[in-house]
Design goal:
One of its GO terms (cellular component) is endoplasmic reticulum membrane. It comes from Aquatica leii. Keywords: GTPase activation, Membrane, Transmembrane, Transmembrane helix. It is a single chain. By secondary structure, the chain is mostly helical. It has 3 domains: 170 residues, Helicase, Ruva Protein, domain 3, CATH 1.10.8; 110 residues, Cyclin A, domain 1 (Orthogonal Bundle), CATH 1.10.472.80; 46 residues. α8 runs antiparallel to α9, α11 packs across α12 and α11 crosses α15. The longest helix is centred in the last third of the chain and has 32 residues. The chain is globular and about 105 Å long. 32% of the residues are buried.
């Protein structure tokens, strides 16, 4: 390659501290850039140049950083200590520390010498096109002002990272939003270690999300209401009455909020917390976040559209340290095992309500059907086997009526003969 990518990063690029999500407007693709004479190499190390967290540290954050650095220099630091440091206020403080501690939290090999396969080697995978499409949609998850060459390398690395995991574990299914999780680790620890982290998470924390159907994921989202029912009954009643459901929280759970937050510092702080927490903790954070916005919920109309619109958009000014502390307290009071009965009851009620709704709709539709369609329900299946359209049903009905008439006529004739004494058994 003509020059290392690091030489092309300007000081301004190194100081960015926030990013925007979900910008579908960018159509820069590899072919366009190659047409402009820009070259790049796959497996290019872009990790060290992605400086989101150059904001000045507060005095409290400095003290936390010193504590983490001291723990890194102490060979006796155990997993419980790493979890405590990640959970406590300010988390792991900056990406340089996260790069060292995140692998320790998941007990994965931090060695970066392993080489990933080239993108061309994975292009025949059945999920390739969908993964590329999602990666292209998430361009604004990359550092603002990133040079073309480095961005292309990152896009390819992200695509390779995702495909490597689902190829190694064929029973796992890629879902839209998985790339939001993967890119966060890629930006912080690089492609080699991020593969090991995603491999571990995909077979543990995210495993249910990667099943062939979303049945278990939908079930898990009901924990949100079970938590609110215990912690804030008034808020639970409002949400339940509005019938807003759980869809507003689905991207939160699937992406660990990476898809929904606009501040990079908030995203990586939450990832510190989730890596040190049990798998269902994102649901407790979701409940805590909704509680944090309870007054906003009370101030708007109690209807599905209004509340869904409000909750699905997360403001930039939330105090996530407060939200995380509340989530930890709620988890201690109401661990998942304690809520399981409430969740099952809610799911069963939803199933019963859905059946009633379907029956009501079916009856309403039946009332509006023409007579020939209503008769369909009273005709035997064998008669309808070859008559699946309007005129076929009419013909079948006429045939049945003619047969009935013939039967009655024959019966009437027989009865007349019997009365005349001409009937012989």
């Amino acid at each position: 390659m003509e020059s290392n990518v690091s030489s092309e990063i300007t000081s301004g690029d190194e100081e960015v501290s926030s990013f925007l999500l979900n910008d579908d407007s960018s159509n820069d693709i590899k072919s366009d850039l190659l047409g402009d004479g820009i070259s790049y190499e796959e497996n290019e190390d872009t990790r060290s140049e992605l400086k989101f967290d150059a904001a000045l540290e507060t005095e409290e954050e400095k003290q936390k950083r010193y504590q983490i650095e001291e723990a890194l220099n102490n060979s006796d630091t155990d997993l419980e200590m790493w979890k405590k440091l990640a959970l406590d206020q300010y988390g792991l403080v900056n990406d340089d520390l996260r790069r060292k501690v995140w692998p320790l939290l998941l007990c994965v090999d931090p060695d970066t010498s392993e080489k990933a396969p080239l993108l061309a080697e994975l292009a025949n995978h059945s999920e390739y096109n969908q993964v590329v499409l999602d990666v292209n949609r998430s361009l604004k998850r990359f550092p603002p002002g990133i040079p073309y060459k480095q961005r292309l390398a990152l896009q390819d690395q992200l695509t390779v990272l995702i495909l490597r995991v689902i190829m190694k574990y064929p029973h796992l299914r890629y879902y839209q939003g998985y790339h939001d999780v993967a890119i966060t680790f890629l930006l912080v620890v690089g492609e080699t270690v991020s593969f090991r982290i995603m491999e571990r998470l995909s077979t543990d924390h995210l495993r249910e999300c990667m099943e062939p159907t979303m049945e278990k994921t939908s079930y898990r989202l009901n924990y949100l209401y079970a938590i609110l029912q215990r912690e804030d009954k008034e808020l639970h009643e409002i949400l339940d009455r509005s019938m807003v459901g759980t869809m507003f929280a689905l991207p939160w759970y699937l992406t660990w909020f990476g898809h929904s937050l606009t501040q990079y510092r908030d995203v990586v702080r939450l990832y510190d917390y989730f890596l040190a927490s049990p798998p269902l903790m994102p649901l407790y954070v979701a409940a805590s976040l909704v509680i944090d916005r309870r007054q906003e919920v009370f101030d708007i109309d109690c209807d599905m559209a209004s509340i869904h619109c409000l909750l699905s958009q997360i403001p930039d000014n939330l105090d996530f340290e407060c939200i995380l502390q509340r989530a930890s307290n709620i988890y201690k009071k109401y661990p998942p095992a304690k809520l399981e009965k409430d969740v099952k009851n809610r799911v069963q009620k939803e199933i019963e309500q859905r059946r009633r709704d379907e029956l009501r709709i079916r009856r309403r539709l039946d009332r509006n059907k023409p007579v020939w369609m209503k008769m369909h329900h009273y005709l035997p299946d064998w008669l309808l086997l070859h008559y699946r359209n309007k005129y076929g049903l009419l013909f079948a009905t006429a045939t049945l009526l003619v047969g009935l008439y013939a039967y009655l006529k024959a019966t009437e004739t027989g009865f007349s003969i019997f009365k005349q004494g001409s009937w012989h058994i």
